[in-house]
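Follow-up to my earlier ticket, as requested here are the two runs.
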Amino acid sequence: MPVICVGGMIGIGKTSVAELIAKDLGSDVFYESVEDNPILPLFYTATPEEIQAKRYPFLLQLHFLQTRFASIKEAYKKGDNVLDRSIYEDWYFAKVNHDLGRISSLEMRVYEGLLGEMMREIEGLPYRKAPDLMVYLQADFETVLRRIGLRGRTFEQDASLVEYYRTLWSGYDDWVHQHYSASEVLAIDMNKTDVVNNPEDAARVVSAVRDALVQARRPVA
């Protein structure tokens, strides 16, 4: 049975799609560490001065790296799971924050060193070394902002975050197409997809995932 990563912008609907796929496959979801994340609200609400003093972006990436590493090892061991974002995406967020000057060059070298050691351990696992498919959720920037707003997490709503979201969004396609190579990619247009409120959309996504798995020579039971 397959292991699938669901990726894409903040607020785009990864959790809903991951749960939909997992239900269809009869598998589990490994969720992104958000509700139990002590650093995430600080990252979003800190002033530039606090970010420089407290190093919240670096601490946040270390927290995500650790939790995603633990999740993907467990998902690979069980061999039948869906990951709500994965360790493969983590570097992109670190890179964006480095490019914005929120993670220093020294911190980035430390981060990349840890990530490299983790990836080498993953590649040496005896039971699985890569996902079978990445489901990449795409949308225009207006859809992303609308969905972040609908989600309603207070710390994500400040108007000062819009340019940060825009920077993440503007480079996401390039990361997927130029840097991600662990598996085949299935892109889903979230401008036209609502798996929560439209059963036809949900069925279409499930069918597309199953077809992509077959094409990747990983048929599901």
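Run two:
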Amino acid sequence: MNFIDFELRGEYITLDALLKATGLADNGGAAKAMVAAGKVQVNGQQELRKTCKVRATQVVSVAGTRIRVIAGRGEAGVPEAGN
């Protein structure tokens, strides 16, 4: 199993955008097809909504890879540098 830590830059990222950003899908159409085919899980549950909002602390699983979504600097209680 491969593991990826993805640092969130805002409050959330859509599921299809996350698959594309991590390189698990070549493009948005491929990402949407993966989700529609039932190949993606969020926190262990199958997710069929292509634009599901994925937030910090959630784990996305697809094709033998787990993506752990972590809060970026200044998000969800993580102090920014210098504070």
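The only thing I checked on run two: Residues 2-71 form a domain with the Structural Genomics Hypothetical 15.5 Kd Protein In mrcA-pckA Intergenic Region; Chain A fold (CATH 3.10.290.10). Let me know what else you need.
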